[in-house]
Amino acid sequence: MADWKAVLKADPTDWLLEADNPSVRCFALIGLLGRPENDPEVAKAKNAIMEAGTVPKILVKQKKSGYWGIPENFYVRGKYKGTVWQLIILAELGADKNDDRIKNACEFILGHSQNRESGAFSFHGTEDAGGRRDSVIPCLTGNMVWSLIRLGYLNDPRVQRGINWIVSYQRFDDRTKEKLKGWPYEKRERCFGRHSCHMGVVKALKALAEIPENKRSLRVRDTIEKGAEYMLQHHIFKRSHDLKQMSKPEWARFGFPLMWNTDALEILGILTKLGYRDERMHEAVDLVVSKQDERGRWKLETTFNGRFQADIERKGEPSKWVTLNALKALKSFYSRT
After folding, report:
1. Residues 106-115: pLDDT tens digits?
2. What's the pTM value of the predicted model, to 2 decimals?
3. Suppose 78 and one of 73, 122, 315, 333 were both cysteines; which one would form an S-S bond, judging by CB atoms 3.0 to 4.6 Å apart?
4. Is the separation of the CB atoms in 162 and 145 below 8 Å?
């Protein structure tokens, strides 16, 4: 399709470029209008991210050591106000990776959640030894690796160890007959059962997609291919063994930020970012197109609002974040077909 905007009922780009949401404005300038990172308007929007909107509301509640709330409650008991979740949101919103508060948050997570033996990330930690080996999970590892890459830590050896864990241990099983043995599989049936957990697959793929193409190792590229094929076998949001049914009906309802969860739009966005244009993606593309309103906007249908440090948009109302993500995915998909 020569003009990807032909699938839109109206063009909401000007709405996304309004100054009230500097993060969306910044990403719209880059992702929709093709502005370079050093463009003056992009630079101005980046600066505004740290001065207005959600990011400063989150950072004002941060403790000096880089955490939020109670240090040890960075994941489970801190949902969704603990440090893990703030790191994901700050990465989503494009927080300044050079800001000392952001660096402190990254260092806190690396010190408390990363298992030092394996490089994976754990939902339980100890003060002297980092994340516990018996509490490592794939969705958290993917989310933390993705967040840390977004926040400038790609070349950090600790993040490289996290990437190595993903390419070494992440599974893409689709109802395999063999029960997995050994660590980390034997204690995490929900994550590494005979059918791999979709969230673990998606967040791993999301993390690897954030690595610049020219910096992806052969093992990273191979893992991306396996993960992408796994999602394509499921037509993104269907059951691979019965494509008439959705894997989870809620994946057809779009939200932001998704935290540990996922939806069809996020998965479509990851695959198009990786350059995939496959006929098995069309059902998800059609779903995305069908959910726009007459002004070419998408609603926030699911949210963890009320449990965040600072709420993000309003459920049931047009969402700049969902709209931005929908437009980026559609532009990427249709511009190369």
Report:
1. 999 999 999 9
2. 0.96
3. 73
4. yes
